[in-house]
Amino acid sequence: MSKNKQFVEKITAMEDDFAQWYTDVVKQAELVDYGLVRGTMIMKPYGFAIWENVRDALDRKIKETGHSNVAFPLFIPESLLEKEKDHVEGFAPEVAWVTHGGDEELAERLAIRPTSEVLFCDYYSKNIHSYRDLPKLYNQWANVVRWEKTTRPFLRSSEFHWQEGHTAHATDEEAAKETDQMLNVYADLAENYLAIPVIKGRKTEMEKFAGAKYTITIECMMHDGKALQAGTSHHFGSGFAEAFDITYLDKDGKSQFVHQTSWGLSTRIMGALIMVHGDNRGLVVPPRIAPTQAMIIPIAQHKEGVLDKAYDLRDKLADIVRIDIDASDKMPGWKFNECEMKGYPVRIEIGPKDIEKNQVVLVRRDTNEKEFVSIDELEVRLPALLEEIQQNLFDKALAHRNEKTTVVKSMDELEKALKENPGFLKAMWCGDEACEEKIKEETQVTSRCIPFEQEKLADTCFCCGKKAKEMVYWARAY
Ligand SMILES: [Zn+2]
User: What pTM, to 2 d.p., does this model score?
Assistant: First the structure.
């Protein structure tokens, strides 16, 4: 018993120190280790297995919507990065540079890609000539480097993994459709695989991507009420095309600029997964992306027949669910704790008494509820239970977000809400950046998005009292 207690005590309670709880879970669930260079991380087998499931689900959707995967170089010549003014200004402070090859100083510095817009633009300028070459629908899975000052595993790291889509289209309208389509793909991934409810909307001018005409985003709420931007899709219009001279001859033989998009989703979503579903016993992984959906724990496994029956069970269920067995010589209590820490959706206990009754015990990770199920019914009950857990996680996250969303009509109301029920703040805004700046400066609250689903909460801006233009979601954010 004391051993089990020790294991659990390694996690700080989220109510006491949410940031420390996060760090503890990341470490104790064996997701990542810190890299040698500050801000870098080592994704360990279990952390990477979860990411792989997220990645595979998204990759399927990217391909289903007609995109091809490609691999572009890691290095960007300095002169190329400087071609689009807003873009370089946005990224310059975070760029890591290569200055030497061996002992020799390079004639031109090379940026390690912080994102690859300019590489794709350069390629498109050389490979798009006619309307017949359009659209170009490319995506790449890659790691990128951004020299961040403060870093945390998954949430903000100097090097991270992601996919970046880069597309070129004949018309602005087509590019707009693509931008919407890919945001919907992200929303579907978040809600239906990761069980994370999202708010879809447009970023304000201040918060949009450097060089974009506009940016649309999915925003989700973490357990502590803070927001996390989980994926963004950008419409570039023809801004990059003009800077990089990407033109095509239309059907009438007239030269036209292409219209572009880019969209990205990164390992940050792993941070969202941890902070939306996790609890004081550790990680909780939604069944659809869980590398192990059910873990069998044999009880009194030294007794004759127990292990045989447990392995039989695993073999029988292996075609239906992702299942594993812990037949190590650790105590069952230790194994239970590990199952909870790793967030396996279901734990299956089987001991001599269960075998006598031809049953097992199923323990749900999300509610801790136990249920006795006949071994004959497991092939039906287990997948159904996994679906119930998936749905329950989504419902819980949505209820939590609703509870922590407050309508505010003045700065006083905003400050009161931040104190009493920190979370999302829905408020009317005049559209003036001065208000946005003031709110950010005084309260560290940023505009998250102008949601597509608008409501009219008031006639005037909650900050300045001038005529309101649109409703905005505000929050402190990761
Ligand atoms: Zn205002």
Answer: 0.95
Q: Write out pLDDT tens, residues 344-360.
A: 999 999 999 999 999 99
- Residue span of the structural domain in which 458 resides: 405-475
Q: 215 C-alpha vs ligand 1 centroid, how far in Å?
A: 21
Ligand 1 midpoint to CA 472 (Å): 11
DSSP 275-303: HHH-BTTB----GGG-S-SEEEEESSTTS
Residue appearing with tokens 């790449």: 140
For residue 305, give the H/E element and its range.
none
Q: How far is the CA of 467 from the centre of ligand 1 (A)?
A: 8
Total domain count, the chain: 3
- Would you call 91 helix, strand, or coil by DSSP? helix
Shared-domain flag, residues 43 and 89? yes
Over the stretch 440-469, which tens digit does the pLDDT of each residue have?
A: 999 999 999 999 999 999 999 999 999 999
Q: What DSSP assignment string belongs to 52-70?
A: HHHHHHHHHHHHHTT-EE-
Q: 455 C-alpha to center of ligand 1: Å?
A: 17
